[in-house]
Structures are given as structure tokens and as C-alpha cells.
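Suppose you are handed a protein chain with no further information: no name, no annotation, nothing but its sequence. What can you learn? This example shows the usual starting point.
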Amino acid sequence: MNTKIMKPIYIALIMVFFAGSIFAQNQNVGINDNGSSPNASAMLDVSSTTKGFLPPRMTTAQRNTITSPAEGLVIYNTEEKTLNIFNGTAWSLINPVVCGQSFTDLRDGKVYPTVQIGSQCWMTKNLNIGTKVTGLTEPANNSTIGKYCFNDDEAYCNIYGGLYNWAEMVQYLNGATNTTSWSPVPTGNVQGICPTGWHIPTDAEWTTLTTYLGGENGAGGKLKETSTTHWNSPNTGATNESGFTSVPAGNRYYDGSFFSLGLNGYWWSSTENDPSNSWGRSMYFYDSDVSRNYFGKYYGFSVRCLQNF
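A reasonable first move is to predict its three-dimensional structure. Written in C-alpha cells, the prediction is:
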């Protein structure tokens, strides 16, 4: 056999064995370019004055394929341009958002105020992430988030946020589409198109919100933006005492048409009713209630994100 080929292989095997023996003896390891010894309190001490440390770099989709991430696992998110850490339940930012303050979605620079309502922290604006597609187009399962804008006009997205069909919102998690269920059903938070550290609220989490505000009868008034700048008159019962500031973005229908701007607002949950329908919430200009219904996943609805805890 060619000894010139075998020699590097032998060297590599020796290095692997040596590294393994260090970890087996529970000793600390130093990697440096200045001859310093590793700090006694560290299992691994990387030291340099001319070079940095590079964690694994990946997209959100690639990060989400990590099997059983350990609590404390860290990666660099190439889409959000920041470090992500797994907190034992969900991926979050190294420096989480302080509820009540605004934060910038690092994916596109848009700013979202937040508000504490009971035990929950909500965005106070509808999500507006992605590239506009026409009402006649079904977004594809790819690396680009597709959003609808009322009447195919980006200006409406800038005011009311984007409209998303259900499958695009959950980013086709576990094979979910607008006509098929995911398999398996997720057991934790569904991030979908929300920023890291946030998730799409479940049907139960929407119920937690409306229950805290006194129940579906009347909760809409406490959630709706006051005035008739965006809501049609009379915008019945609107006090916005919760700070949620809902606006009536209308919806996109399956045939590509748009309805109800100024009249009604519709918001998805991540909870399915059946393979083709999922639960959501709606509010109307003519009363102060919140309606709970299931809708065809093909609808384009607004999305509000809920902070992970």
C-alpha cells in the first residue's frame, strides 16, 4: 500500500485518539495562538488576539432540522444575522426581547412594538415579512416567504401587515399543507414565519387572551384600535385597553380576490381543525366581540406572533 497516503491517515487517527483521551480524563482544553494555558474553570478555552470563534452557521430551516437540540445549544442564524440559543423548549435570541419595548426583526429591519397582556407578550402589529405574491398565486414551499397584500398593493401591507395562507404561515412544518395535516403533530411552539423567540399562537393561547379580557363577548373592543382611521365607523366598543391594537386587514379568498378591508380582521392560530381547516379569530367593525371559527387554510389572514417563554 502507498505509505504516502497512509501516513496522513495514521496521524489523523492518533489525533482523534488523543483528543478522545483528554475528554475521557475530564481535563480542560486550550486552543490558542499565543501559548497561554487554558483557564482552569473552562473545559474549552479558545484564546486569540487576532482571530474569532465561529459557531455553526445555518438558515432557520436548517436549524430546525437539528434532532433533539440540547438546552444551551448555540448557532449563528444566517438569515437573522444573529446568534440563536435553544432554551430547552424553543429557539430564542441570545438577548431576548423585553416585553413592552419595540424590537427590530433582523430579517428585514421592520420594527414591532410589544405589550404584556396577562401572562402573555404579544406583538402589537400584524406581521409583515416576505415577498409579495399576487392574489392568484399560491406561495411555494421554498426559502422565500410569500405574502399577500390587499388588492396586490404593497402599500396595504405596510399599513395592515401581510396576509398569509395557513401552510405558508407554518412553513410546511412536518409536511403540512393547505389540504393535508402535519405528521407528526408538533408538540411545542410553531415558529413558522415569526422571528426567532416568537411563535404562532395556538387556539388555546388565543383563548387565554380572550379569557383574560373577560371572554369573547367584549374582548374585541379591548383589542381593537380606537378611532376610525382604519376601522370603518362605528368601530363599536373599541377601547384598546389591552394595547393589542388590532386593525381590519380583511382577507384573501381562494380565487385570488380580496375582501373586508376596514370591516373585519382575521388572525390565524397554529391549531388545525381538520386537514383543510384551521382555527382562527375574527373581529368586526360593528361589534366588540371576538369570534372563534375554523376557516379554510387557503384564506389569506393576518398573523400576530406570541413571545416564547
